[in-house]
């Protein structure tokens, strides 16, 4: 899953792909480099990020979706707003990737309404764990048992969707590296990543260029390609089925080597 942020303030690539033409050119590069899913976001969710209005988010993402809807790879919308979910699905995206795990008002209904209106094309859904919200999530996050608590949350959110009629095979889960977790929490989750697969859903690993890698290496955001790839391989080796990254070419090439030795 390649990250395409049409934002001015995302932590790693904010401002690089604000115009539709720049974003489309980046998407074409990712496709050439072997991406499977392009995750389009119009609002930064880095720690401390301020929310943007619905209209501003739509103005950022809809032209990109329209330009890429026939690009040959799956499109995902990175949003938590119900109206953005509705309009992105109408515009042709294949997946909803929600940091709030569809907890915002109207989000679940947006999925169900789309299913009702377009039963022939039911989207995939990625449910992520986050403690508190982007403005406060990194203020001394605390857990008794981070693995158990994150697993329980994701299981409950997934089961709620299934009870609403969403098929299990449409749901993936994301433990949410860096979203209300300390360095210790993040390392614990990566070391025990295989435990999340025990819930029976494909698991997404989103570690690319994150601050945990900067704390370990002392590298600035744009110098974290090597540790990001290393983390991706570690996650894949522990059962990750989706790897969300900024650096598609480097990650794809590294995964090819890893896959070759898996037999």
Question: Topology of this protein?
Answer:
Elements: E1 2-5, H1 20-32, E2 37-41, H2 54-68, E3 74-78, H3 82-91, E4 95-98, H4 107-117, E5 124-128, H5 146-163, E6 171-174, H6 183-191, H7 194-197, E7 204-205, H8 211-217, H9 225-237, E8 242-243, H10 248-261
Helix pairs in contact: 1-2, 2-3, 3-4, 9-10
Catalytic activity: (7,8-dihydropterin-6-yl)methyl diphosphate + 4-aminobenzoate = 7,8-dihydropteroate + diphosphate
Protein name: dihydropteroate synthase
GO molecular function: dihydropteroate synthase activity; metal ion binding
In short:
This protein has one domain (2-261): Dihydropteroate synthase-like (TIM Barrel, Alpha-Beta Barrel). It has 10 helices and 8 strands.
Can you give keywords for this protein?
6-stranded parallel beta sheet; globular; TIM Barrel; 8 strands; alpha/beta; folate biosynthesis; single chain
CATH superfamily heading: Dihydropteroate synthase-like
Strand order in the largest sheet: 1-2-3-4-5-6
Tell me the Rg in angstroms. 17 Å
CATH architecture: Alpha-Beta Barrel
Beta-strand content estimate = 5-15%
Query: CA-to-CA gap between the ends?
Result: 23 Å
Envelope shape: globular
Write down the domain tally.
1
- What would you call the structural class? alpha/beta
Q: Share of helix among residues?
A: 40-55%
CATH topology: TIM Barrel
Give the rounded overall mean pLDDT.
92
CATH top level is Alpha Beta
Number of strands: 8
> What is the tally of helical segments?
10
Query: Low-confidence spans: pLDDT under 50, at least 5 residues?
Result: 9-15
Q: Name the helix and strand elements from N-terminus to C-terminus, one letter apiece.
A: EHEHEHEHEHEHHEHHEH
**Biggest sheet layout:** 6 strands, parallel
